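Notebook entry, structure prediction.
Reason for the run: the old model in the group folder had no record of what sequence produced it. Starting over properly, with the input documented here first.
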Amino acid sequence: MSIEHRFETIPFGKMLSLCNDCFCKSLDGENGEGVYHIQIQDGSLLVNGDQYSEEKFWKLLGDGRFLVQNKIYQHKDMERLYPLSINTLRIITVRSL
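New structure, fully documented this time:
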């Protein structure tokens, strides 16, 4: 099996070598559904903290389409708002006509 990487398909093992601590997100998910925390520790694949084989991981994903992203860390001031996820600000500009 393989995973699409920047518009190219790469083997599953190579994806894991590029991603020691990342997130696998369903392209069809919303509100945090279909998001898996992927880690490689001591050569083992962990999904949401549980050890998985490659086969078990593929069964979890099914036929869905997923995006794999490296873990990011937010600024400490943003983390104070809510430390359990990445916080975003949406700014709306209203221009009078």
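Summary: The first strand starts at residue 2 and ends at 5.
The old model has been moved to the deprecated folder.
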